[in-house]
Write a structure and sequence with these properties.
By secondary structure, this protein is α/β, with parallel strands linked by helices. It has seven helices and 13 strands. The strands form four sheets. It has a four-stranded mixed beta sheet. Helix 5 packs across helix 6. The longest helix is centred in the middle third of the chain and has 28 residues. The chain starts with a helix and ends with a strand.
Length: 249
């Protein structure tokens, strides 16, 4: 039944507008167009992460017009991009958030060993060739995110009485996670940079979609029943979500 409803929704839904990109200073931002039948004018905003431009497009307005509107809004975009702060690089001397705590990246001049975080001292040690620090650290962050999100998803699936098919870890720029009707869960690896209760909430949110494919009262009741930190986590993402997207990969 759920699959049939999804098919009907796709049949009547308007064709999505192809996204674009815009360069602002040294940053390249995704431009995401979202058609809205009730919208009366073009509206532009930065995503919560600060790494994408979201454009609301009224019915009957072409993608070309929406793109022209975006180009005319460059000064506004530049102003708001500057306000989010400078980029953070995955290299020695830079500090990144890890599970919500600031850690300095320290290269260890050793061919052996694995990446390890020392949260008491606030450092992440990265051994190996200095030319490979960024790649090794990114691989480790993604693996850590997968492990934490798999555990959280398994736990919430049991609590909510649902099953998922697979989990994928990506660098999603406009959302923290997603759930398909087929039962696939997808998460942003950057959740490993957030406090534990934030990662936990996103897992609860996406697993709850396996039972309710919307944001109805039943959906939120399910999330809040099993994840009491949901409200606090949502506030954290709204206030600090853009900070974890300042990390350049």
């Amino acid at each position: 039944m759920i699959g049939l409803l999804r098919s009907l929704q796709r049949a009547v839904a308007p064709k999505p507008l192809e996204p674009s990109r815009i360069q602002i200073g040294g940053d390249i931002l995704d431009v995401v167009f979202r058609r809205h039948a009730q919208a009366r004018r073009l509206v532009l905003r930065l995503s919560t992460s600060g790494t994408a431009v979201m454009v609301t497009v009224p019915k009957g307005v072409s993608r070309a017009k929406a793109l022209e509107f975006t180009e005319r809004s460059r000064s506004w975009i530049e102003q708001h991009v500057r306000s989010r702060g400078s980029s953070i690089h995955l290299r020695p001397g830079h500090a990144i958030p890890f599970r919500g705590l600031t850690h300095e990246i320290v290269h260890v001049d050793s061919r052996r060993g694995t990446v390890a975080a020392d949260s008491e001292r606030g450092v992440i040690h990265v051994p190996g060739d200095s030319a490979h620090v960024q790649r090794r650290l990114l691989d480790w962050l993604k693996a850590s995110a997968r492990a934490d999100l798999a555990r959280a998803s398994d736990r919430y699936a049991k609590l909510m009485g649902v099953k998922f098919r697979r989990i994928s870890i990506r660098d999603q720029r406009t959302r923290w996670g997603s759930c398909t009707a087929a039962g696939d869960l997808s998460y942003s690896w950057r959740l490993i940079l957030t406090p534990d209760y934030v990662l936990d909430y996103v897992a609860a949110h996406e697993v709850a979609h396996l039972k309710h494919l919307d944001h109805s009262q039943r959906f939120w009741r399910l999330v809040l029943t099993h994840c009491p930190d949901a409200v606090r986590a949502k506030k954290w993402l709204k206030a600090h979500g853009h900070d974890v997207h300042r990390v350049v990969v």
